[in-house]
Write a structure and sequence with these properties.
Chain lengths: 430, 249
């Protein structure tokens, strides 16, 4: 790419990097890699120009207006009694955090030496690495904290006083020691109506035999959102991940899991409810670098209005990944003729002795199902609602007891969103 | 209770029912038999209000009201129940919640207070016993992963819970082994009430060994061509539907 073609956002990144003392490894790597081309496989379903052509200002100070501060307090006041850590616009808010089961340290970008940066292929992850001013590093104090979840709130407050849209880089890294069991609820939310970019990295390293239950809740605002999840699984470790996304406006979530040790397992489950104007991409990658790994990906989307969703998965089994067992399943329910969904399950397998399965299905609630329920006394609207609730309930049912409170909250939020989706579908039909 | 007069019905533009008449009174059990394609299931579907079927002529009165003017859900709330030939699977919705919602919708329609979950749980346990189904059925998703026999029994459980005035059993015996057939039939017999009626659609006489009909009707080419008592079913079993060709009545 010539200088004349340098995206506006990259220029802002260069300005920011020059303003920092010294050049970080992450920035050097970013400049080598550059932003992806439009035809890049991993980005083909995402309108990258909407970010690259916007003059976001890299914001590492996270200053908030008085109204922003109040809004955050109001948002958190209903969450009392939680073991929690709060980041606002990428900055760790110590006064708002309550930590008892985890130790936390500042994750200064200058001190971040992630050995995997050299292999990082996502430029936004690299941008996050060198622009995250005050990320947080977490480790459980005991090996058994699973019963009490740690809530990690990453709040984007778009009431920043600056006139230009900002780009925030929340960064959270978690280290789970050998044999530990933890539950983390990661809530990404936007308060306010600004058009700021939130570019988040959440990375977790699961040591030998450790277990992580990871419940990830996303509520986007009007600005774009990118989230990169990075998991490293050591021998016999296990990750159970649950994602709930309600009405993201314009977002991309990329989850990459490296099976570094044998007999590790990762189970990804997710639900996305997309309303009018939503455009979202899920990109889940499983890198089976070791033997006897088990991975399972199960993602469901309900789309209304002109919502667009893309779900891409890649299961990569290299020559060491013997006896890998992997399943990918994506199901989508479309409530509008204008909604669009793209499903791209991919397998890259370098050896024979593996078991891999993938499948995808997209459709509408069938007339037969609706009539069956109506014949039991449900109105057509109630029948549709019940069918869709059942559709997503299948994912919620997989959630363990330790996150039952989250499950109930998600189910309640899902019901409200479904009502809006059905209202919208009814209005379109009329 | 039910008065069907000169009903003609089509599906996908093809006429299936060609002038069907039938009267059912409270407390009666009527059986409809007939060869494949004679219109038996079409009759069940038009009574339940399947939108894929269109009644082009004739009338259906249920307790004096125009049944055809009602939406499917309103027919259900009024007391019409169809036990499906192919019950539909509803993943993610457990039987107990589903049935409680349906039960309460009917209670609300009747001006009765809704049942709370505990109260309903007891009621459901009683109804499950009618068709010898286990308690774990409550937590299972509606018909999802059920065997053919379990699905048919589930239809009878739903019928038991909803206590309809008119129950239409569309080939409930198909796909059932001898034991399951007996369980289902015993369940139906136990649920009979003087103020309710049954319309049983079947290919075979074997179900009628267990549920004794007051009337047997033979449907052929969209019309009832012969009616009689339970002995008509035995005759059909012996002589087959071919007897209709040379023996119209």
């Amino acid at each position: 790419m010539t200088n004349a073609e340098t995206p506006v956002f990259e220029k802002a990144i260069d300005v920011f990097a020059r303003s920092q003392a010294g050049t970080t490894e992450a920035y050097r790597r970013f400049k080598e890699l550059g932003f992806p081309k439009k035809n890049a496989e991993e980005w083909r379903d995402f309108d990258l120009d909407r970010i690259l052509r916007s003059p976001f200002e890299i914001d590492s100070c996270g200053a908030l207006s008085a109204s922003g501060e109040k809004e955050i307090d109001a948002y958190l006041c209903g969450q009392s009694g939680q073991n929690r850590i709060v980041l606002v616009n990428g900055l760790w808010q110590r006064a708002r955090s309550i930590l008892s089961d985890f130790e936390a340290k500042t994750l200064s970008s200058k001190n971040t030496v992630d050995p995997r940066l050299a292999d990082e292929k996502n430029p936004f992850s690299l941008v996050n690495a060198f622009s995250a001013k005050d990320g947080v590093w977490l480790k459980p104090k005991t090996t058994c904290s699973a019963e009490r979840p740690l809530y990690v709130y990453s709040i984007t407050s778009t009431h920043s006083p600056g006139s230009r849209a900002a780009a925030f880089s929340p960064r959270i890294e978690v280290h789970l020691p050998e044999g530990s069991r933890s539950t983390i609820v990661f809530v990404e939310t936007v308060l306010g109506q600004g058009s700021d970019l939130t570019n988040t990295v959440f990375a977790a390293h699961l040591e030998k035999g450790s277990n992580l239950i990871f419940a990830h809740e996303i509520h986007s605002g009007t600005g774009p959102r990118l989230t990169q999840l990075r998991f490293r699984l050591s021998e016999t470790s296990r990750l159970d991940s649950f994602l709930f996304q309600a009405s993201p406006s314009f977002s991309r979530t990329e989850a990459s899991t490296d099976f570094e040790g044998p007999h590790a397992s990762a189970f990804f489950n997710g639900v996305g409810l997309l309303e009018k104007g939503s455009e979202t991409v899920q990109r889940w990658t499983m890198n089976h670098f070791n033997s006897n790994g088990q991975s399972n990906q199960y993602y469901k989307t309900v789309l209304g209005g002109d919502a667009k969703a893309a779900f891409g998965t890649l299961v990569n089994v290299n020559s060491n990944g013997v006896k890998t067992d992997s399943k990918q399943l994506n199901k989508n329910l479309i409530l509008s003729d204008l909604a669009r969904v793209i499903s791209r399950p991919q397998l890259e397998i370098s050896i024979d002795e593996v078991s891999c399965f993938h499948g995808s299905a997209t459709g509408q609630p069938s007339d037969e199902e609706i009539f069956y329920l109506r014949s039991r006394g449900f109105s057509e609207r109630a029948a549709r609602s019940l069918l869709i609730e059942g559709f997503i309930q299948e994912v919620f049912e997989r959630m363990p007891v330790s996150v039952s409170e989250i499950r109930l909250r998600w189910a309640s939020q899902a019901r409200s969103t479904l009502e809006r989706l059905l209202d919208s579908a009814q209005r379109s039909a009329a | 209770m039910l008065s069907i007069k000169n009903v003609h019905a089509t599906v996908e533009g093809k006429e299936i029912l060609k002038g069907l008449d039938l009267e059912i009174r409270p407390g009666q059990v009527h059986a409809i038999m007939g060869p494949n394609g004679s219109g038996k299931s079409t009759l069940a579907k038009i009574l339940a209000g399947d939108p894929d079927y269109e009644v082009t002529q004739g009338s259906v009165l249920f307790e004096g009201k125009d049944l055809l003017a009602l939406e499917p859900e309103d027919r259900a709330l009024a007391g019409v129940f169809l036990a499906f030939q192919y019950p539909v699977e509803i993943p993610g919705v457990n039987n107990a919640s589903f049935l409680r919602m349906a039960y309460n919708a009917r209670r609300k329609h009747l001006g009765l207070p809704e049942a709370d979950p505990l109260e309903f749980d007891e009621l459901l346990s009683e109804k499950l016993a009618v068709v010898e189904m286990k308690e774990d059925f409550k937590k299972r998703a509606v018909n999802f992963g059920f065997s053919g026999g379990e699905k048919k029994r589930n239809e009878i459980v739903q019928m038991a819970v909803l206590e309809p005035k008119l129950a239409i059993l569309d080939e409930t015996d198909s796909g059932l082994d001898i034991d399951a057939l007996r369980i289902v039939a015993d369940g139906v017999n136990r649920l009979k009430r003087p103020d309710s009626a049954y319309l049983i659609i079947t290919h075979y006489q074997r179900l009628l060994n267990h549920i004794i009909p007051d009337f047997v009707h033979v449907l052929s080419d969209g019309r009832i061509v012969r009616s009689g008592g339970k002995e008509l079913a035995l005759e059909l079993e012996k002589r087959g539907y071919e007897m209709l060709a040379g023996d119209p009545s």
